[in-house]
Task: structure prediction
Amino acid sequence: MKKILLVEDEKPLCLLYEEELGAEGYAVTSVHDADSALEALKRVAFDLIITDIRMPGKDGVELISRIMGMRKDVPLIINTAYQSYKEDFMTWAADAYVVKSSSLDELKARIRELIKG
Amino acid sequence: MSELRKDIVTGRWVIIASERSKRPDDFRPAGAVPKEEVSAFCPFCEGNESKTPPEVFALRREGTAPDGPGWRVRVVTNKFPALSPGAPPPRPEGGLFQSMPGVGVHEVVIENPDHAKELVDLDTGHILDVLDVFRMRIGAIEENFHYQYVQVFKNKGKEAGASLSHPHSQIVATPIVPKRVKEEVYGAERLFRANRECVFCRTIAEESRLGERLVLRNGDFAVLAPFASRSPFEMAIYPLRHSPFFTGTTRDELASMAIVIKTVLGRLKSMLSDPPFNFVLHQAPNPTVSSKAWPGIRGYFHWHLEILPVLTKVAGFEWGTGFYINPVPPETAAGYLRETS
Result:
C-alpha cells in the first residue's frame, strides 16, 4: 500500500482526505504543521507528500524547501486554497499545484500520475 | 521647501522633499544586516534543473546536455506564467469591460548557477553573458510580431518583489504596447517634433556638461541620477550611441555596459548595505510594430536601463496622484554615488 503524508492544519479536512484517499487504497498519515511533517519524514519512507501552504509556524513553502533538502526524490503536491503562491518560485519544487475545491478529483488524478505501480 | 519636478518625456511629476532629505546611512538597516536565511533547497541551483520547466536557452559548457548541470546562464519558461504563448489575440471590442486572452511570453533568466552570487558579484565577462542572453531572447521573441513589447526586468530582494534569492531576471512579452511605454514613446516623439533632436541624446549631453547628476561616464555609456528621480538613488544607464532597440547593441557595447553595471551596482551595494532594487529595461516596442505605429521612432527613441532602489514605500498619495515623493535630491544621490568606491 502506497504511503502518503498529508500536511494540513485543518483537522476536519484531514479526516475527509484520509477517508477519500483511503478508499482509493492509500495509507494516509496526517500531520498539522511543518515540524511534525519533518519528524514524520525521518521515521517513514513516504511515497508522496501533500502539503498545504498557509499553516501556523513554518509555512508550506519553507517546508517544501526543507523536504527537498532531505529527500529530493519524493513526489510532492501543493494543495492550497490560494493561486497566489504560484508567484513564489520555491513552489516550482513541487510536482503539482492543486487549488483546493469541494471535489478531490484533480488531487486524486495528480496522485495517480505521481504514484505509479 | 520641497520642489516639484517634471519628467518632460512622460509628463510624470515627482516631489523632491528636501526637508526630508536623507543620507545613505539613513537607509541602512539599523544594527547588523540580517543574513537572508539560506534555503535548504532552491529550484534554480545547478543540479536541480528537473524542478524547472525545460530550458528555452542556455549558455553551457560544451558537451553538457540541456536541462542538466554545466550552464552559465539558463532561461526557462515560467512554470506559472502571467502570460502564455498562443495565437494572436483579437483586439478587445469597445465597451465598458474590455479584455483579451492572456497571450504572451514569460521567461525566467537564471543568471548563474551559484545561489549566493548576485549579479554584482559576477565577473564582467559573466555579466556580459547575461546581457547577451537578454539581447538574444528579446530578438527571438520579437520575431513573433504579435508580441508587441518585450519587458526585461529584475527584482532583487523581497521588498523589490523577488520570491527567491537565487539571482534571476525575468522577461515578459505582452500582446499590446503597455501604457507607460506608449507615454514614453509619444513623449519622445512630441519632443523630437518640437526640437528636431532626440530628447535622450540631448539630456545625456546636457547632464554630462552640468555634471551634478552624472554618476559616471565611459566611452559607451552615461549613468545619470535622473532630474525627476522617483526613488532615492535612482539611476538610468544610457548608451551614448543613439539606438532605440536593445537588440541593436553590439557585443563590445554590452561588454562596456557590463563594466558599468558592475560598478554602479557595486556602489549601491557598498553605500546602502545591499539594498533591494528593481531594474527595468526601456526600449522601443517590437520593431515590426514600431515601424507601423511610430515610423520615425528610430530617430527619437533611445533605449536605457533604469535602476530603482526600493527604499521608500509607494502608498496612498502615489496611487492617488501618480506623483512620487523622493526624499533624496538626485544631485545629492549622484554625489554620493560618484564618491563611493
